[in-house]
Amino acid sequence: FPKSLQKEFKDIVDNEFFAISEKAGISIAVYTDGTLWAYASGKASESLDMTVNTPLMISSTSKTFLSPLILTQIENGHYKLSDSLETVLSGHPDFSSFPTDKINPKVTIEELLTMSSGLPNFNDNNQGKSESFKKPVWTPSDMINLVQSKYVEPGTFEYNDTNVVLLGMIAEFHSGQQLADLYRQMFYDPLSITAITLPEEGI
């Protein structure tokens, strides 16, 4: 990027970040057409500054990888936005074990992507999630089976990681590859990102 644009990027980040009263560190990148700008500010820990090379949990940022991956599979004809869970996961070895009063089989890909599925959030089961993460091996289906409450009718936005786990299962099922490998091929390697994907590549 031209130096003037890099300065604009930095000024925008600094103005927003330093205006926050309670903060730690920020790491940010802008990428387009083979050009990358990366910047970091603040603290990674009490004794370390944040740098562009500081390892971070991808966490919810992974949604920016998963959504285009799903849309690419749709473009490639694997399924449609309007397809339901029972259609796209028909034949998945774990799908039949999901309780139909908690995981609505009629929910569509579009409702999962837009966080309007009405599905309960497995994160609400704090004890179950904590116990799962202590295990040396756990699967996306283990997360889905942590859901405790019944689903509600789709249509209202609610940020919910159950949607994400199901989308990841769909991507794997229709590609025959693990999500970690799909991310590496589509995003990590082309963008020179060093990353591991949980749970496939360990904790």
Please give a structural write-up.
Helix 2 crosses helix 7. The model has no long low-confidence stretch (mean pLDDT 91). The chain has helices at residues 3-18, 63-75, 85-88, 109-113, 126-134, 140-144, 161-175, 179-188, and strands spanning 25-32, 35-42. A two-stranded antiparallel ribbon has the order 1-2. The protein has 203 residues and is mainly alpha-helical. The longest helix is centred in the N-terminal third of the chain and has 16 residues, at 3-18. The two termini are 36 Å apart. It is built from eight helices and two strands. It is globular and about 55 Å long.
TL;DR?
This protein has 203 residues and is mainly α. The protein has helices at residues 3-18, 63-75, 85-88, 109-113, 126-134, 140-144, 161-175, 179-188, and strands spanning 25-32, 35-42.
Average pLDDT level? 91
Query: What's the gyration radius in Å?
Result: 19 Å
Largest sheet: 2 strands, antiparallel
Morphology call: globular
How far the N terminus sits from the C terminus, by CA atoms, comes to: 36 Å
Question: How are the strands of the biggest sheet laid out side by side?
Answer: 1-2
- Total strand count, please? 2
Low-confidence stretches: none
Query: What percentage of the residues does DSSP assign to strands (E)?
Result: 5-15%
Quickly count the helices.
8
Broad structural category: mainly alpha
What is the string of helix and strand elements?
HEEHHHHHHH
Helix content: 25-40%
